[in-house]
């Protein structure tokens, strides 16, 4: 077990190194002049040269990358002309916009993204597993057909259409809720929940279609297995067969997929966040792109990579814990 | 009297039995699939004929009509249903007064162009990498396998957004979108192609071709490619609607096609400010996008079932579908 985890983590570290090389290469070498971008529109050549000096852009690409890695693992110093700015250990650079440390910015925005993702997960687990089970157990009936059509429509619809229609119905026409504005949990938990309600419902319902399909197919697979037939032959009641035994087979894949989805969402549910104006990582990414703020963009892409890779390891572990037949090698 | 050399006369009504014909026969019996196909054919025809229809309606996508919107109320179109009239069949865009019917049609062109173009890139790259991994030696397979894993795990939308930021503004946007979506999304196809190639490689007809002296690539082209067609077509059918959603999402976020080129996603993004005043402007592009994606999804599902009945209702294993959230 420990060996397996270590092996996977080593593999993950390699993938992340490859990802950082790729991202670094793409974003620092391909486009125009980072110094000009960092300096802003109205900079004269001398100012640009000065910025280039400060950001260490005179050095070779390889040296720059080493400095970047050094920043991530040990921190680095930036000269600001008047003094020295120290950037603590997981240093992802400074924002071109306002010289804020990217790590700081990301941590600041993580709360909003986490609120959105975790709340939505509750909904997709309840709704997804519920409808999936229901349609697996009512096979061939009207219920199954209705649910199949609904989940098919759900998987195909872009999340922002669902969100737009909900906003239009609930906020503009019925006026049950005001248009959501983000309130941090620490500030006012009640307002936080009310304002997050629509984003949660949107993202939760959107995701639950996928989970319903997954639950349905894995439940059907489990129900067709020999040991279930044996249980039935022994006279175990149908309710008990489903809740005690079929669910046990249906849940592991759902848990694994949830871990992966949650990991991806920590890079921000970009569409949901920008539709509802939630100041999370996804919205920060989009703002970064608009202002061509490369350190912010690179930082968020890398962070998402870390989250996804770790989520994959966690998913495999959870899968093995939930289903003892899976061997970890 | 019959001799042994006589071929049996074809029995009337015997179904033709080529795999393509069998698939078509299965497909024909599914009304949902046929309806979807009809919807999509209509959409493609409308998109292709957009300039013609625009001329017929006497409109073009980029002319402003300030006289048709009420500047006192922030630019809401005069009249019911978003200002629909005999001149402007589906009304006009709030704020600018541009003809909505023509803009929606041109939006369909962009949507289909980008989605299909990106699918072609994804399939070609997937075939190339998958075949190389399946036919190459252990090291090639392992290396390509790792790369494929990385691409499958990448946060697709996040990277696509980031990539659109670094490319110069004057690079043609539709082409950029095709390349970005195509270059990021080939890994699923490559997995399927590799698995299929490994299976096929062990079969007699492929071995026979090698024994007869064909080289690797000749065997790949003559023997493997035809057998790969079914799974690849099936997967491509799922890729198209996904790509439509990705294009709409990027345009919705303001990093897709640049104005004034019309795009459904970008219309929906501006529509947010017109919920109350002009609901038609929200519902028309939303309905169109929803119908298109749904029709492609239903048709893709049906094609999969028709080409491989065993696969019916099963989730694609190892080919995680991209979701844009």
Automatic annotation (TrEMBL), chain A:
Q: Which UniProt keywords apply?
A: Cell membrane, Membrane, Transmembrane, Transmembrane helix, Transport
Q: What is this protein called?
A: ABC transporter permease
Q: How does it sit in the membrane?
A: Multi-pass membrane protein
The entry sums up its family as follows: Belongs to the binding-protein-dependent transport system permease family.
Native organism is Streptomyces viridochromogenes
GO cellular component terms, semicolon-separated: plasma membrane
Q: Where found?
A: Cell membrane
> Start and end of every ABC transmembrane type-1 domain?
110-319
Please give the biological process terms from Gene Ontology that the record holds. transmembrane transport
Q: Which PROSITE patterns match?
A: ABC_TM1
Q: Where are the transmembrane segments?
A: 116-137, 149-176, 192-209, 254-276, 296-322
Q: Which domain of life is it from?
A: Bacteria
């Amino acid at each position: 077990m420990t060996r397996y985890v270590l092996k996977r983590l080593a593999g993950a570290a390699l993938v992340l190194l490859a990802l950082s090389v790729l991202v670094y290469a793409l974003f620092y070498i391909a486009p125009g002049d980072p110094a000009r971008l960092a300096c802003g529109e109205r900079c004269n050549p001398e100012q640009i040269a000065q910025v280039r000096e400060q950001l260490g852009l005179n050095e070779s690409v390889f040296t720059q990358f080493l400095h970047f890695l050094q920043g991530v693992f040990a921190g680095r110093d930036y000269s600001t002309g008047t003094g020295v700015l120290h950037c603590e250990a997981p240093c992802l650079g400074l924002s071109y916009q306002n010289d804020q440390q990217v790590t700081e910015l990301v941590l600041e925005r993580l709360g909003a993204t986490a609120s959105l993702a975790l709340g939505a997960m509750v909904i997709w687990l309840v709704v997804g597993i519920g409808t999936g089970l229901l349609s697996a157990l009512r096979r061939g009936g009207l219920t199954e057909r209705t649910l199949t059509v609904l989940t098919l429509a759900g998987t195909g619809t872009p999340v922002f259409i669902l969100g737009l229609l909900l906003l239009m119905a609930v906020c503009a026409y019925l006026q049950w809720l005001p248009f959501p504005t983000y309130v941090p949990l620490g500030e006012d938990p009640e307002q936080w929940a009310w304002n997050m309600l629509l984003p949660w419902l949107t993202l939760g319902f959107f995701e639950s279609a996928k989970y319903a399909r997954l639950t349905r197919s894995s439940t059907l697979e489990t129900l067709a297995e020999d040991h279930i037939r044996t249980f039935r032959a022994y006279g175990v009641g149908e309710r008990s067969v489903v809740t005690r035994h079929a669910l046990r087979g249906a849940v592991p894949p759902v848990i694994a997929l949830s871990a992966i989805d949650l990991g991806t969402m920590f890079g921000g549910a970009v569409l949901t966040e920008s539709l509802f104006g939630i100041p999370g990582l996804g919205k920060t990414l989009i703002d970064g792109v608009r202002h061509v703020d490369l350190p912010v963009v690179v930082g968020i892409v890398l962070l998402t990579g870390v989250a996804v890779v770790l989520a994959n390891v966690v998913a495999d572990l959870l899968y093995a814990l939930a289903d003892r037949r899976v061997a970890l090698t | 009297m019959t001799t042994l050399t006589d071929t049996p006369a074809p029995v009337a009504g015997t179904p033709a039995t080529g795999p393509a014909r069998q698939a078509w026969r299965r497909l024909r019996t599914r009304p949902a699939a046929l309806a979807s196909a009809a919807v999509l054919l209509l959409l493609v025809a409308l998109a292709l004929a957009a300039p013609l229809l625009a001329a017929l309606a006497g409109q073009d996508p980029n002319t402003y009509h300030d006289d048709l919107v009420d500047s006192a109320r922030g630019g809401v179109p005069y009249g019911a249903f978003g200002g629909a009239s005999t001149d402007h069949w589906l009304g006009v865009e709030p704020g600018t007064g541009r003809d909505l019917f023509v803009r929606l049609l041109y939006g369909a062109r962009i949507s289909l162009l980008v989605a299909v173009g990106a699918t072609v890139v994804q399939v070609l790259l997937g075939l190339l990498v998958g075949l190389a991994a399946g036919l190459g030696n252990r090291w090639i397979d392992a290396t390509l396998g790792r790369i494929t894993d990385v691409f499958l795990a990448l946060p697709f939308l996040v990277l696509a957004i980031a990539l659109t930021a670094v490319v110069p503004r004057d690079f043609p946007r539709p082409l950029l979108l095709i390349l970005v979506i195509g270059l990021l999304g080939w890994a699923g196809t490559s997995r399927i192609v590799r698995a299929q190639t490994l299976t096929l490689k062990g079969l007699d007809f492929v071995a026979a071709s090698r024994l007869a002296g064909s080289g690797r690539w000749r065997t790949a082209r003559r023997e493997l490619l035809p057998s790969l067609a079914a799974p690849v077509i099936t997967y491509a059918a799922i890729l198209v609607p996904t790509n439509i959603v990705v294009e709409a999402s990027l345009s919705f976020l303001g990093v897709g096609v640049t104005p004034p080129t019309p795009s459904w996603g970008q219309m929906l993004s501006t529509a947010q400010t017109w919920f109350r005043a002009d609901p038609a402007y929200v519902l028309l592009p939303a309905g169109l996008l929803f119908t298109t994606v749904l029709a492609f999804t239903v048709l893709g599902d049906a094609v999969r079932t028709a080409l491989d009945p065993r696969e019916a209702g099963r989730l694609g294993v190892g080919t995680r579908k991209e979701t844009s959230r």
